[in-house]
């Protein structure tokens, strides 16, 4: 289906799997983080499986679940911080090296008056630092947002303060992206090239979601 992307006043992008080919980087980082802190292979894989199942959800929630349900440990600030710090260290190199979505700069040129925003399940400070280092932060004049606030909270807040202008669209690769976009009244396109959602085809068909391969397809004639 052809999308007239130029009609939108705000374009909201998920980060991992949409702007950056970083889903695999993060999945591997979850496994290594757990292992580095003493997990068995089975425990580390349980964290990975939960991460993949809950694409787009904050790492804070995932580590909370991991401590409670897999390790059967109390969820303390110290324990969560150890996981967060280890995860950030594992991610740093991979996120600098992973591919940027083809067509992103052309899309920015094609939508000069649109407000661009990043809305990620990743850590907000980490995303802001990364985009500065990769010299793409200037493209997202609507802001770079992530956890610990979840996507529903950010969308509600940015709508209330007038930062999201309608019509608006969310470009994502996870079920939660679609759900959050729908609750906030944004149009939605599922980008499938880099998604880790195993049943994405069935899910998108059931919910009648428009599917494109990647950002570049938004510019195809």
What does this structure look like?
It is built from nine helices and six strands; from the N terminus they run E-H-H-H-H-H-E-H-E-H-E-H-E-H-E. With 221 residues, the protein is an alpha/beta fold. The protein folds into two domains: 5-21 and 100-219, 3-Layer(aba) Sandwich (Rossmann fold); 24-97. The longest helix has 21 residues, at 77-97. The chain is globular, with a radius of gyration of 17 Å.
Tag the structure with descriptive keywords:
221 residues; alpha/beta; Rossmann fold; 6 strands; 14% strand
The radius of gyration is 17 Å
Q: How far apart are the first and last residues' alpha carbons, in Å?
A: 11 Å
What CATH architecture of the largest domain do you see?
A: 3-Layer(aba) Sandwich
Overall 3D form: globular
Helix segment tally: 9
Oligomer: single chain
Q: Level of helix content?
A: 40-55%
- Computed structural class: alpha/beta
Strands ordered across the widest β-sheet: 3-2-1-4-5-6
Considering the protein shown, what is the CATH homologous superfamily of the largest domain?
HAD superfamily/HAD-like
Q: What's the level 1 CATH class of the largest domain?
A: Alpha Beta
User: What's the total count of β strands?
Assistant: 6
According to CATH, the fold-level topology of the largest domain is Rossmann fold
User: How many separate domains make up the residues?
Assistant: 2
Mean pLDDT: 94
